[in-house]
Specification:
Blueprint (H helix, E strand, L loop, with lengths): L1 H33 L7 H15 L2 E4 L16 E8 L13 E9 L11 E4 L13 E4 L5 H7 L7 E6 L21 E11 L8
Antiparallel strand pairs: 1-2, 2-6, 3-4, 3-5, 3-7, 6-7
């Protein structure tokens, strides 16, 4: 019986601790429930934004150079939208899908609850950008998402563009594998094509 009394007394002493722990768990759950959603109505927001932007942009490039079959008419989601910030001054050649490129870029999403200017998910340089010291990123055109590749294959050396990419040509409905970009995200990039090179010979259109 003495053993039972000792156990009961010990449990009674610990009771306030358990009650306090339960209270913390309850408060924590309540706070989580009240946390505002970061990307509310994200699919509709992105689709409506891109449809409106498509009609407003002067320069729209389709997937023709990338994967559209001959004779297929492109839907508006088969295009990337381009705002020319600066035109290049070096020739009329553009990269092929298999080419390697050097680029400066920064990418962000549409504004969301916390990121009122749009979440910046990737960039090739440290802020503030300094063209004299920033080292461009090297990559192959085909290693990028379809929309980014479509833009690159229409750019000339020195071109600096703001490119809007529909989620169909970006990370689709599932988002990026690292979880940084949710599904249905329109991607907005600033891209500057510094240089490109290829093993193929001869002039290209």
């Amino acid at each position: 019986m003495n053993d039972i009394k000792i156990i009961v007394k010990g449990w009674v002493k610990l009771l306030p601790f358990y009650l306090f722990t339960l209270l913390l768990l309850f408060v924590s759950c309540s706070e989580k429930d009240d946390t505002p959603e970061e990307y509310p109505d994200w699919k509709n927001k992105n689709e409506n934004y891109f449809e409106t932007a498509f009609l407003a942009h002067e320069y729209n490039f389709s997937l023709e150079k990338f994967s559209l079959a001959e004779g297929v008419v492109a839907a508006h989601t088969d295009y990337v939208l381009v705002e020319v910030i600066e035109e290049g001054k070096e020739g009329n050649l553009t990269p092929y899908l298999t080419d390697s490129v050097l680029v400066h870029y920064v990418g962000h999403l549409l504004p969301s609850t916390t990121y009122t200017k749009g979440y910046q998910f990737d960039k090739s340089y440290l802020e503030p950008f300094d063209e004299d010291t920033a080292v461009p990123a090297g990559m192959t055109v085909k290693s990028t998402c379809i929309g980014f590749a479509t833009a690159l294959m229409n750019m000339h050396r020195g071109d600096h563009w703001r490119v809007t990419i529909p989620y169909q040509l970006g990370y689709g409905t599932s988002g990026s594998s690292d979880g940084n970009i949710p599904g249905y995200s329109t991607l907005i990039f600033e891209i500057q094509l510094v240089d490109f090179w290829t093993k193929e010979k001869g002039d290209r259109d």
